[in-house]
Amino acid sequence: xxxxxxxxxxxxxxxxxxxxxxxxxxxxxxxxxxxxxxxxxxxxxxxxxxxxxxxxxxxxxxxxxxxxxxxxxxxxxxxxxxxxxxxxxxxxxxxxxxxxxxxxxxxxxxxxxxxxxxxxxxxxxxxxxxxxxxxxxxxxxxxxxxxxxxxxxxxxxxxxxxxxxxxxxxxxxxxxxxxxxxxxxxxxxxxxxxxxxxxxxxxxxxxxxxxxxxxxxxxxxxxxxxxxxxxxxxxxxxxxxxxxxxxxxxxxxxxxxxxxxxxxxxxxxxxxxxxxxxxxxxxxxxxxxxxxxxxxxxxxxxxxxxxxxxxxxxxxxxxxxxxxxxxxxxxxxxxxxxxxxxxxxxxxxxxxxxxxxxxxxxxxxxxxxxxxxxxxxxxxxxxxxxxxxxxxxxxxxxxxxxxxxxxxxxxxxxxxxxxx
Length: 420
Ligand code: SF4
Description:
The chain is α/β, with parallel strands linked by helices. It has 2 domains: about 5-65, SH3 type barrels (Roll), CATH 2.30.30.140; about 125-390, Aldolase class I (TIM Barrel). Helices cover about 40% and strands about 15% of the residues. The protein has 16 helices and 15 strands. The strands form 3 sheets. Strands 12-10-9-8-7-6-15-14 form an 8-stranded parallel β-sheet. A hairpin with a 4-residue loop joins strand 2 (about 15-20) and strand 3. The longest helix has 19 residues, at about 105-125. It binds iron/sulfur cluster. Iron/sulfur cluster binds next to loops.
């Protein structure tokens, strides 16, 4: 989680405080752990204290990452759009409003939509970016989802399992680097049974302080209870599509209502929910996408998480077209308008679609959460959900976002309202 922003030091007082300039305003702030600064230096700061000194180039890079679209000229936008934005500001968007937004094609209106979503993000959660590290520890899966390269029937995949010791060591290393939220992800691989998963969670939690999301698919409620008791805090468990028929086609042998019940039950167990859908499934309509957003809201989703369809070879959807990136940005922006305080994540699939500026475009459309792949390099290429998967150490973000120490945990628990 990043709660830090860059600023230039204006002056340093003798009262343990400094005046800093964030570009738009000056503020007085406690020096915190930073004791070697002078006027003209660049720093990262949180709401309450300075975190560390950085160089000017890093500060400028972070400002670039926080760029926004220019504010639209509202007078020139069509009346229907303005009415929908008014409804968004009153939090009274209807399903038909959402459908209208999903159908927008005009570039000025799209830019206005992204801009409005970004303003909503900034006014609700400022420029705080949540950083997650994801460890893909097994690519075995017993399922046959039509869109997924890891499906059991794909015999071209080189399967791997990290050992429990490797998973724990990878997690501990990540926390040493400053990560505080990790996602442990796999296909539905029952080799990792209740006992192994519980032990992995306990071992990680006994060695470091970290919030753990599980993304391991269907398990019994009793198992999920055990994982929770072992220390798992969240689940990344997508409903994939709110359209029952489409869901059944994409996930043979599975029923949407069951998936939704599981999500509700997991929430009752105290798990923080990350869920969402796939954008660009064959036959998916604006009405389906609007329902996806409404379902995320109904489930009180903490972290909306979308996967754009990137057709993968050796799957039934191999011949489908890739979804247009603007549809992904629309999903982010509309979700932000409907769920202003949520942590909307930029997934690796989004970055794969636009490796140069995918992440930044997503932020500019209202996203505020990133996932960095921490799977050891020797396994990464085999976690083959789709082709040409994008890997990026996210160095800039790590420099900006990861800071250590007790204070950083306290800030994060307060901001996210979670216990680590
Ligand atoms: S989406 Fe998940 S459950 Fe479905 S085949 Fe892929 S890894 Fe398995």
